[in-house]
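cron nightly-structures :: item 1 of 1
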Amino acid sequence: MYPFTHINADSLASATAALGTANTQVIAGGTDLITYMRLMCSPNPPTTLVNLKTISPSLDYINVDSSGTLHVGALTTIAEIAASSVVATGWNALAQAALAVSSPELRNQGTIGGNISQKPRCPYFRFWGNQFPCLRKGGTTCFSLIGVNRYHSIFGPDGGCIAVCPSDTAPVLVAMGASIVTTVKTWAAADFFVIKGEQINSLAANEIVTEIQIPALPANTTSTFLKWSFRKAIDFALVSCAAVITQSSGSVSAATIVLGGVYNTPKRATDAETYITGKAITTSSADSAGLATKTTALNTALPANAYKAQIAKTMIKRALLNLPAYTT
């Protein structure tokens, strides 16, 4: 493992000040960062880690304000979100996504801020000792494009890279129109998730996530999250799907469908959204909505991972059929 210095920050201000030093990163649950450092897979690893769990006031909370907006502190554990009756009642897809994350032990330790700030899971990026200096680490080659890519993007590369976003909660936050509050600004979730070197987010070097805000869903709107992976636990999504659907008089009046595990960032399934809007959700219409996305994905999928397009189609279909129908 890389050697590092560990600092317990007592406030956000002191944590931000510490980040002004080169090669410094924050740590909370550490479920992703410690693995990354143990593999010594980066050419420029952090030499100082700033612990956020010691700051006061704590960023571990879940509450709803008078406008109905859900506020989740960045240090709230994934387990707390999964078990929250408040989250399950108004923002069910987020509770489902949290419960789908890894194992009970890691959900107890990992935080929502960390879950949306993970580094890529590509085996070339994570290979021990930085033996594959890929594009994301300042190199000139995406080794997955010329090597093993059966788990990678089916919607083509972003900036030449085809590693996918590993976060289970990220598609839900995008689908629900969440905001990511940091010490610098408030990001729309759709803008927060980007390729930025080794990151899958827009954070600057001295920027810390402090809170997730999700507005109350409109009337007659329900949400769901489904995940498909080879193992039922302790596995990253091969494909996941978050759907937020508004129904009126038996048909869909608004739809946001976001896929995970299929692109560098959470991927809006706009073809599926367009198809299902104005229609009643039936087995046939849900299947056709998924097919619209599958057809688009197959245009850019690689020979080894094209099978994921069929899984994406099926996940969209299942997500739509998993929602209750409204007749009002």
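cron nightly-structures :: done
The radius of gyration is 20 Å.
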